[in-house]
Automatic annotation (TrEMBL):
Residues 3-165 form the FAD/NAD(P)-binding domain. Its EC number is 1.18.1.2. GO terms for molecular function: ferredoxin-NADP+ reductase activity. Its cofactor is FAD. It catalyses: 2 reduced [2Fe-2S]-[ferredoxin] + NADP(+) + H(+) = 2 oxidized [2Fe-2S]-[ferredoxin] + NADPH. This is ferredoxin--NADP(+) reductase. InterPro entries: FAD/NAD-bd_sf, FAD/NAD-binding_dom, Ferredox_Rdtase, Ferredox_Rdtase_adrenod. It comes from Streptomyces avidinii.
Length: 452
């Protein structure tokens, strides 16, 4: 039998587990899917926006995989912490596949990032998604009239949309009650989503972008002069050569180039060619706005500064400039790329494949792509693992890893514990007159999981 630990129960971890048990080359594979959190599904539970129910429903297919009899879910198990080192994990299993994602946000590296009211989009997403590590985050939304979101990716679109959405539309989601209450009391009327490059270079996908224009009570606007700065904007031949997604994005943005604010209670402005220079604050240490430098295309896809500045008022700034991998104690790490060095998924130590250690997902390739991108990524890694399986399976293991984890003082949440959390979230929702509502803190989650 080949016993494999998959660390991380987000899409890449679950796809790795699924590929391992569904292949026929190596019979008798058993997989434990470990997660630091008591709940499975990674960013599908804690990153996909609560109002994106269709993407959220992917949890159903991840669940089917985790319920396979050859797979065990073990939540509340931190790898790389005091109780369980990467070395010890490799003693307990023939192979370990790290699918730990890219948990940290990136900083802008400009003055003012420490001001009150400046947050990462990651923290905001974690908070409204009920991530237990974000339970103590405070967003002073009643005191905010205007918000700036820096970045032009899908996360920027998500946080812009959640800030602009009315709570009536969020109430049917599983958003934790404290976050829903804070958004209900929000004073936000204007959100500026600001990109340093041009409209044809936005990283958002068209479906997500277009959705901004469908929000009730929200005007969306673009500045025709900013759109026209993009060299492809007025050049149909160059526009036709763009990737389809960029071409469609341009069309959507063109449709929003309008005469100015309408009479909707809230307004989203999509701004381009503005590079962050400084976050401005008042004497009380709170953010009051953000200073940008107007940029211009440099002819090779980048931008150059023009020396012209523009300030945008804001009482809330969310930087949404991408995720970054976090080093895991005991695993090699390429700090420049924010990933674990690998060859076709085999972890490289000092340039050589480390026996029995693999990576998949964002910690392997960086924080790019949509959820489905993780499937081929996990397949490549598992295919490397299966090539090595003959040699790996020769080693005798010390017994059921679960006993060793418990002996180390860990209290794994097994699948019935997770089902108990789900049931408690359904009960919580019923008590609030809502559908299932997330429990947003460690104590609540572990309490709901029952005796461990
Ligand atoms: P992203 O797609 O990499 O976008 C990052 C944005 O930040 C880019 O617009 C980038 O601009 C900008 N940026 C980076 N450094 C900057 C700086 N110093 N100053 C100003 N702007 C800066 O990252 P993401 O939005 O975090 O998304 C991560 C991944 O998750 C993506 O693959 C995304 O598609 C996926 N995701 C998908 C969905 C969905 O499908 N609904 C939802 C959420 C996330 P430049 O282009 O100029 O570098």
């Amino acid at each position: 039998m080949l016993r494999v630990a998959v660390v991380g129960s987000g899409p890449s971890g679950v796809y790795a587990a699924q590929t391992l048990v569904q292949q026929r080359e190596v019979p008798g594979v058993r997989v434990d899917v470990l997660d630091r959190l008591p709940a499975p599904y990674g960013l599908v539970r804690y990153g996909v926006a609560p109002d994106h129910e269709k993407i959220k429903s992917l949890q159903g297919s991840l669940r089917t995989v985790l319920e396979d009899e050859r797979i065990r879910f073990l939540g509340n198990v931190e790898v790389g912490g005091e109780r369980l080192s990467t070395g010890r994990l490799l003693e307990l299993y023939h192979a370990v596949v790290y699918c730990v994602g890219a948990a940290r946000d990136r900083m802008l590296g400009i003055p003012g990032e420490e001001l009150i009211g400046v947050h990462s989009a990651t923290a905001f997403v974690s908070w409204y998604s009920g991530h237990p590590d974000a339970a103590a985050e405070v967003f002073d939304l009643p005191g905010v009239d205007s918000a700036v979101v820096v970045g032009a990716g899908n996360v920027a679109v998500d946080v812009t949309r959640i800030l602009a959405r009315g709570t009536a539309e969020l109430a049917p989601t599983d958003m934790p009650q404290p976050a829903l209450g804070a958004l209900a009391d929000s004073g936000v009327r204007r959100v500026a989503m600001v990109a340093r490059r041009g409209p044809s270079q936005g990283r958002f996908t068209t479906k997500e972008l277009r959705e901004l224009g469908t929000l009730p009570g929200v005007d969306v606007g673009t500045d025709p002069a900013e759109l026209a700065l993009d060299p492809v904007y007025a050049d149909p031949v160059a526009a036709a050569a763009l990737p389809a997604v960029a071409r469609r994005n341009l069309e959507v943005l063109r449709g929003w180039a309008g005469p100015g604010p309408g009479d909707a209670p809230r307004r989203i402005a999509l701004r381009f060619y503005l590079r962050p220079m400084e976050i401005l604050g008042g004497p009380d240490g709170r953010v009051t706005g953000m200073r940008f430098e107007r940029t211009a295309p440099d002819g090779s896809g980048g931008v150059t500064g023009t020396g012209v500045h523009e300030d945008i008022d804001a009482q809330l700034v969310l930087r949404s400039v991408g995720y970054r991998g976090v080093p895991l104690a005991g695993l090699p790490f390429d700090s420049g790329r924010g990933t674990v060095p690998h060859a076709a998924g085999r972890v490289l130590r000092a340039g050589r494949a480390s026996v029995g250690e693999y990576v998949a997902g964002w910690i392997k390739r960086g924080p790019t792509g949509v959820i489905g991108t993780n499937r081929p990524c996990a397949k490549e890694t598992v295919s490397s693992l299966l090539q090595d399986a003959g040699a790996l399976a020769r080693r005798d293991l010390p017994g059921d890893p679960l006993d060793a984890l418990r002996a180390a003082g860990l209290r794994p949440v097994r699948w019935p514990g997770w089902l108990a959390i789900e049931a408690a979230e359904a009960d919580l929702g019923r008590s609030l007159g809502r559908r299932s509502v997330k429990i947003p803190d460690w104590q609540g989650l572990l309490g709901a999981a029952g005796p461990l």
